[in-house]
Amino acid sequence: MTAVYPFSAIVGHDRLLLALLLCAVRPEIGGVLIRGEKGTAKSTAVRGLAQVLAQVDGGALVELPIGATEDRVVGSLDLQKVLRDGEHAFSPGLLARAHGGVLYVDEVNLLHDHLVDVLLDAAAMGRVHVERDGISHSHEARFVLIGTMNPEEGELRPQLLDRFGLTVDVAASRDVDVRVEVIRHRMAFEADPAGFAERYASKDSELAARVTRARALVDSVALPDNELRRIAALCAAFDVDGMRADLVVARTAVAHAAWRGARTVSEDDIRVAAELALPHRRRRDPFDDPGLDQERLDEAMAQAGESADVPEPGPEPDPDPDRPPGGGATSDSSGSAVPQRKSAPQNRSSGSPSPVFKTRTLVVPGVGEGAPGRRSRARNRTGTVVASTTDAETGHGLHVFGTLLAAAENQRVPGRPRPRAQDIRRAVREGHEGNLVVFVVDASGSMAARDRMAAVSGATLSLLRDAYQRRDKVAVVTFRQRQATLLLPPTTSVYIASRRLARFDTGGKTPLAEGLLAARDVVVREKARDRARRCLVVVLTDGRATGGPDPLGRTRQAAARLVAEGAAAVVVDCETSLVRLGLAEELATALRGPAVRLAHLRADDLTRLVTQTDRTAA
To answer: 505 and 394, same structural domain?
Structure first.
């Protein structure tokens, strides 16, 4: 058996280890979302925790693949038994296998929203209820839900972020001593995995024993009224939506007290819980900076203490003096984890204010087959059932009625139809897909000189927000002087896109042809990577092509090459002169797409524009 890197040997991620252990003590917290760049031991920590919990209750580590269907996750009708034996049987899914262990979802931000909902519901309730395909089934599913993600590949929706109990941001340490220790540990493990694991076996066993003791104690931990008021006041101070944050902070504080071996929740328990449960619930907008301002937390804790209105009890002594892993924490005399202060995160530079546009979606004409999203029409595994098919690749899920009809038509003896394998019909579903939206932004001197960049930036950010809500990938190309620059390769992280757009150079001539060719290159690369994802190119320009020989002719040629790749296009006309040249409209004609004026980039106009686009495509 391959040795697993020991949980207790992980260096430099105390906050992460603490969050995982608290969810192991009390899974009702709702799981942990681990956010961080690649190479930060996210998966290593998850697999190490599973080894620890295997000593507690024998649970296994179950990994959920990104491409999993809902049938595989929750279970469904056992079709083989139905067709072969006529037996109405239920086939359990991955949630049943995860009972008592760890359910791990790598790149959870790439998982479809409806599946994330299913996982979070099961993690919160500890049970799975299945009502589908004519079956009704319920079973226990108590597991520690852990999701990992790289923010550069896109964010989870706010409503899904809120469903995760705790969130930890991890990054490689900048402390040289810590990095040296990480390297030393890893190389020692690679040289002798079994021997290295054996050296940390006793420490992992101690953690397993401590989890067991904390689980036995957690139900008897008292949460005094004054501390309950502190929690309510703290969540109110941070203006979080709903009551889920209050409940998660309370459950986490109780779990932390039990982890310390205390029988009463203290202020320090609540602070630790707040640092793990509140940061991701404060992001109301995809452009908001992540994290929790420590100075703001200090102020809120002080104000919450005043609201408690009851004398605060002192912390109880910790019967176990061994310091547990704690998130960036030191230990006070009681052994409770006291978070160290860190500098508040820096906000994105604002510059001059940009107007905000309330946009409606631009769409790619026709019906695609791309990944589920909320922009253009598509046939995929989500959406409404519109037909049945025998093609397993085209259909998604069992079409029960179509299967029974086929069996009835093919039966040889009158009576109850007995479906055979060849009678199976799949459901054809029509919903919506996410597209690749390539923003091509004119950053030339004609745009900057007329003070239009603020309006263009505002429009682009509004369209980026729309792309975020519709599950799109986005890319940003700017062009100025003699060249175009790929400011942002295709990504689903509009937060990163907004930061890139906040800082780019302007001025010079207008190499419009280079901008279109750069967009074409992005489209070609994306088609090679994902042929089902269709592309929408949004060009924000006044259409004044300058620089080089025959700039207008080169622009028409570049537009023709982009059209040849099958990309849909929309031109946002940024011209503001009293005497209009209509160059942007000519560009839209060359791109075989509509044009909309920058000042009209609002809901009503885009609704009309989309209707016209669909009618033209039809």
So the answer is: no
Last residue of one domain, picked from the residues 153, 188, 218: 218
Structure tokens at 84: 């072969």
Structural domain count, the chain: 4
Residues 163 and 238 in one domain: no
C-alpha torsion sign, points 441, 442, 443, 448: negative
Q: Domain range for residue 578?
A: 434-617
| Secondary structure of residue 542 in the 3-state scheme | coil
Rounded Cα distance, 549 and 545, in Å:
11
Say if residue 165 is exposed, middle or buried (CB neighbours under 10 Å; 0-12, 13-18, 19+).
buried
Q: How far apart, in whole angstroms, are the C-alpha atoms of residue 474 and residue 464?
A: 8
Question: Are 40 and 154 found together in one domain?
Answer: yes
Are 27 and 59 part of one and the same domain?
yes
Residue 328 domain-assigned (yes or no): no
Which secondary-structure segment (H or E) carries 136?
strand 135-140
Domain membership of residue 367 (yes or no) is no
Claim to verify: residue 166 and residue 106 sit in the same structural domain: yes
CA distance 469 to 578: 36
The token pair at 554 is 């080169």
Of 90, 43, 45, nearest to 71 by C-alpha is 90
pLDDT tens per residue across span 21-33: 999 999 889 889 9
Report the candidate in 71, 77, 66, 76 with the shortest Cα–Cα distance to residue 116: 66
Provide the whole-model pTM: 0.63
Regarding whether 428 and 446 lie in a shared domain, the answer is no
| Residue 151: pLDDT over 80 | no
For 16-74, the pLDDT digits (tens) are 999 999 999 998 898 899 998 888 889 899 999 999 988 987 878 888 887 777 778 88
534 and 407 in one domain? no
CATH number for the domain that contains residue 147? 3.40.50.300
CB 415 within 8 A of CB 475: no
Reading the block at residue 431, the tokens are: 């919903």
Considering just the CA atoms, what is the radius of gyration of the chain in Å?
28
The token duo for 223 is: 């949460």
CB 392 within 8 A of CB 426: yes
Catalytically active residues are 244
Residues 209 and 272 in one domain: no
Whether 526 and 370 have beta carbons less than 8 Å apart is answered as no
Exposed, middle or buried: residue 191 (CB in 10 Å: 0-12, 13-18, 19+)?
exposed
Residue 320 lies in a domain: no
